[in-house]
Amino acid sequence: MSDPDRWTTPAGVTAAVRRRWNDGTLLRAYAIGGTFPAIDVPLRGPGAADLGEHFDASRAWAESMRRASRAGRAFHIDSGRIGGRLAGVTEVPLRAVIDSYEQAWTLLDVHDEAEEFRHLVAASVELPRVYQWALSAPVAAIALASSWSAVIAAYRWLDSHRGSGRYLRQVSAPGVDTKFIEHHRGVLAAMLDVPAGKSAFARELGLATKPTTVRLRFNPAALGMPAGVSEAVLRTDELRRLEVRAQRALIVENEITYLSAPVPPDSVVLWGKGYDVEEAASIHWLANLDVTYWGDIDTHGFSILNRVRAHLPHARSLLMDRETLLAHESHWGQETDPTNVALTGLNAAESTLYSDLVTDRYGRSLRLEQELIDWEWAVQRLI
User: Fold this and answer.
1) Which comes out higher in pLDDT, residue 9 or 92?
2) Among 61, 105, 225, 295, which is least packed, fewest CB within 10 Å?
3) CB 226 within 8 A of CB 239
């Protein structure tokens, strides 16, 4: 005897067909004019032993299946006979069979969506990458049906302007602007076979991206600047091309500390901006200078130092030591989201202090922010 609660419901038949819709099987075959991939759903229902104790439930279940079939418009029912001398012979549904697109679309109520997909695939035949993407992601393509012509226009413009060095702001495709491209970047990236990340998308297409910049302070002679100019924000690529006469460089994490740091005649001071420090550290002429990095004494401070060392292995850390930490106990605070990743670019003393921070040797999630270090203490070690 079976449990009526475990009998297949009409919703179970719909779910079996819905899976073939969601994975694209039905839509792909429909769009290319293929034979319908028939779906055969075995029905778990009453057995002969149920006709006594669950006779009414068995009859109601069979009737619900017949109603759900909509007289064969949603699915056909293959029936069989159960019962015998004691309970009588009764005909019950055994299988639900869907063997046409019309049945599947009726069952799922997706006639309009299926037609939209067929039309957008037909509109993409001359663009193989767009065509293949639509067939590979039918449900996602249907979600774009109302803007499909704009998607195609964006694809055509981007593909034809590979390597042009233009900004996306210069797009001239009908119905397309930068916001449209940004909103659909993932789809367009898949069609164009480039990474979907904002910078990588433009870079791989050979389009222009917003230039990165580095802010720095200097003695004008050290950077060949006009007299009276002591600070600048320069494009990273242009800064790399400057002929520099400086001997020393200090990279500072905190902005106010960067503005306060003394600038000796032969030095430059660069604002690291936390994890953006790689913009400054990647300037190739720093490899020929005596470079010092000053950041917070916390796990992220050492993680940023590790990034600096990836570009400038010779860079020394400043005021990121145990002596400075212990001398400023009254200014200790807590990191809200400490890290514990392995940092291979630290020296022995830095690695030991980093380990102490990770293991909470001096306190839970301990940090000493750069701007809380006594200024006189700091200046004596900066000069």
Assistant:
1) 9
2) 225
3) no
The DSSP secondary structure of 157-201, one letter per residue, reads HHHHTTT----GGG---TT--HHHHHHTHHHHHHHHTS--SHHHH
Q: Supply 298's token pair.
A: 């916390």
Token pair of 248 as six digits: 């020393």
Question: 272 phi and psi, to 5 degrees?
Answer: -80, -30
Q: Minimal CA–CA distance to 320: which of 352, 363, 365, 275? A: 352
Q: Is the separation of the CB atoms in 43 and 8 below 8 Å?
A: yes
* Cβ proximity of 309 and 346 under 8 Å: yes
SS3 270: strand
Query: Is there a contact between 360 and 298 (Cβ–Cβ < 8 Å)?
Result: no
Q: What is the pLDDT of residues 328-340, one digit of tens each?
A: 999 999 999 999 9
| Average pLDDT along the chain | 92
CA distances from 226 to 25, 229, 247 (A): 68, 6, 19
Model confidence pLDDT, tens digit, residues 56-84? 777 888 899 999 999 999 999 988 876 55
Structural contact between residues 146 and 129, judged by C-beta atoms closer than 8 angstroms: no
Summarize the chain as % helix, strand, coil (round to 5). Answer: 50, 15, 35
Q: Kindly give, in sequence order, each residue whose CB lies less than 8 Å from that of residue 48, ignoring residues fewer than 6 positions away.
A: 82, 83, 84, 87
With H, G, I as helix, E, B as strand and everything else as coil, classify residue 252. strand
The pair of three-digit structure tokens given for residue 42, joined into one six-digit string: 């075995």
Amino acid letter, 237: D
Least-confidence region, from 118-122, 242-246, 247-251, 349-353: 242-246
The answer to pTM > 0.70 is no
Percent of the chain with pLDDT over 90: 79
Residues 285-315: pLDDT tens digits? Answer: 999 999 999 999 999 999 999 999 999 999 9
Decide if pLDDT at 185 tops 70: yes
Cβ atoms of 354 and 302 within 8 Å: the answer is yes
CB 344 within 8 A of CB 379: no
Paired tokens of 10: 């009409």
Cβ(108)–Cβ(68) below 8 Å:
no
Q: Are 319 and 294 in contact (CB under 8 A)?
A: yes
Tokens of 349: 């003393």
CA distance 383 to 381: 6
